[in-house]
Amino acid sequence: MKKTLFLLAFALSAMHLCAQQTYPVNGSYDIRPGLYAFTNANIVVSASRAITNGTMLIKGQTIQAVGSDLAVPKGYVVIDLKGRFIYPSLIDAFTGYGLPDAARNVSAGRQSIFLSTKRGAYAWNEAIRPETNAHTFFAADNRAAADLRKIGFGTVHAVNRDGIVRGTSTVVTLSDDKENITILKDRAAANFSFSKGSSQNDYPTSLMGSIALLRQTYYDGLWYSKQTSEFNISLQEFNRQQVLPQVFEADGWQNVLRAHKIAKEFGRSYLIKTSGDEYQRIDAVKAIGSALIVPLNFVKAYDVDDTLESRHITLAQMKGWEMAPANPGIVEKAGIQFAITGHGLDNIKDFWMNLLLAIDHGLSKKQALLALTEIPAAMIGVSDKVGTLDKGKLANFIITSDSLFTRANVIQENWVQGKRHILVFADDSAKKDSASVAPATLAAAMIRPREPMIYPFTAFGNTTVPTMEHVLLRNATVWTNEQEGVLQNADVLIQNGRISAVGKALNASGARVIDATGKHITPGLIDEHSHIAGTGGINEGSQASSAEVRMADIINSEDINIYRQLAGGVTTSHILHGSANPVGGQAQLIKLRWGKLPEELKYTDGDHFIKFALGENVKQSNFGTGVRFPVTRMGVEQVFVDQFTRAKAYKEAMTQKGSNVRRDLELDAIVEILDNKRFITCHSYVQSEINMLMKVADSLGFRINTFTHILEGYKVADKMKAKGINASTFSDWWAYKMEVAEAIPYNGKIMHNVGITTAFNSDDAEMARRLNQEAGKAVLYGGVSETDALKFVTLNPARMLHIDDRVGSLKPGKDADLVVWSDHPLSIYAKAEMTFVDGVAYWDIDRDAQLRRRQLEERERLMGKMKESKNKGNKTQRPQAQRSRLFHCESIGDEFYEEDLKGDHSHE
What we know:
This protein is an alpha/beta fold and 908 residues long. Among the domains are: 90-443, Alpha-Beta Barrel (TIM Barrel), CATH 3.20.20; 526-615 and 654-812, Metal-dependent hydrolases (TIM Barrel), CATH 3.20.20. Helices cover 27% and strands 21% of the residues. It contains 26 helices and 34 strands. Strand 32 (832-837) and strand 33 (840-844) form a beta hairpin.
């Protein structure tokens, strides 16, 4: 009863703090001064300033003074803290507090909503919604606020998480008052993501589409600022918000890099809310120079007691569990500025347990305090109000029984805007709230990880990335693909990433000598048509043309298929958009540099390519109702005519002086085709459609570089030869759908005989692991010579990709991309024993055997550690099979995954 009266007295005494000037009072006014003096306290004014046995004075919502020798003025209520601590209340820089849950598009099947259904002069796409202002629909949530206050928070940044361009967020306190009092900053930041959220528009359906849409919006904003012909609320608001802090929510370190790339293109700087895996590529994350908002939602240990279930846990999942708590400390040691957020925790009460776990794993206590007070306050523009206990700031502070990061500490009170919230009575330790104290047993359950980082952070990652070597491969059968043909008992010298010499009895001082007696050496295999190493979908098929999207934006350096294909001798892959629409996206040529960053995989010079497509996939008339244009083959032809007609007019307009032409990323790509700066690879099957596109190209003045698939190429080979069009086909695929009913296994042979540069491609992650065998089929079907057959997967694709000056043959001066085979390279018995890319042995069959043994040991170590964690009472989760998707031309979206039946890749 006594405590109840005590609380009531303080509640009444604080009523004046929340008096809203514009709100009438129903009854008599109770206006009190709200004067408090906190004495004999250890006052942590900021992370760099503390006062022992100090006094703090507050009046109403504001701190009046802080010091060690302050006299308490008359009229102040004195609260003797007897050596307890006062800290600034914590600040969370990224929450959904007081806002509706982030909506998601849950409609099933394909949609047919091209333009926004939102009425008014808004953006054409519903994922672009800068006009959304969180403060206009923010509603204080007393229950959620109480939970956050219990763990020490007094101020939060409330972010609407719906859409790609999300509009403005708001900064609020966690007082239990009305919104008029708790909102500190109405438009705190502009917010972005790669998620379309609840948008019902067809576009985008992929990550690369989201990136393209965001880039186009920036260009539209620039155009809008210089024009008077159109009124657009969304673009107007988008431009106005460029002066605000820019917050980008990115899922995974690769998306952190992708977000930064956009920011750099448009001269912006993002504050990036991460997913907590920055440790995997900390150097790359540091290099972008962005401040981060780092979560503490660490992965729970997996319950590995069931042997059958535990086999599905991947090495990456287990190492992610072990390493995640070290992430904040690793970010700190890298010198990156960052704030800490509780966003993403299953239960906010786990916040302190995870924070102390992060401290156990290397996060300093000073940085922890900075990341929860001063840094987030600066990020969201409220440093003048909160973050420290300086004079004039809001009276947002917590009272603790001990130093804040001591395990036995209890957060006893949380004052928000000068209003007292008692969490635990100082004399009632038996009733400590679990949210305000960190359980020591749980926080101490893990030790710091001793194992080194692996690159990539997945099975078959290396503790150090393989380096360029000076190597002499001696006494092999060397398939040069040059005039010298096949050399017996010959040597290949690799130096500085290039082929230095090819011949017999070569000498090289200081080179590592590898005896290749009885083995074969060929150029590295080149896959002209691949869909590996992409993420977030391989098709942006929601529109007839998606020429604006770029495979370059979604290259995934962690894709296990890179390693697998190195094991099959592949060194270069042409990563193509799928075939869901007539004009697909821009392609990206990569080298399979396992362990390197996404940008480091890319060919940085040379010509550029784009995917076109013909046939059933693009017209989609068998997809059901409500699909987009075109739905007939006639319509497909018209798409090409329209695209190039518009592009010519666009190009002409861009050359006019003084004109303010809207930059159109889609038409930019088509203009590049007209200017012979971008080249077409066209998915094709049927003779009539192949003839159609060749005629359209003639009439509109563009050229076709390559027909890929082209299983009826044998019918039109003479016409293709006359136009200088290349052919990249399958070796012996036929009858797998109606369009290929007339495919024959002699197709490649016939086109080759006519004089067309012919290649065999994979279009399939599994087939690419044995492209050498696909080449061997050219010998079987039609008797292509062995040397010419090997060129089907080496020199010929290099020629059609315009990189034959660098790769495709073993010639001094070319890149040292080559394969050492155990047997004849076209044989089914041949194994790639070593695969060099730029003189680096990214694949080594002996090193692979050692790596497999180490990974099995690592799995056992980690499983033992997870069992120990469970035995100590830590929460666990049931093993979930990690599924990976193998993309093909027709793969739509990124929602459905094929289970890797072998479980963890490290078992292979």
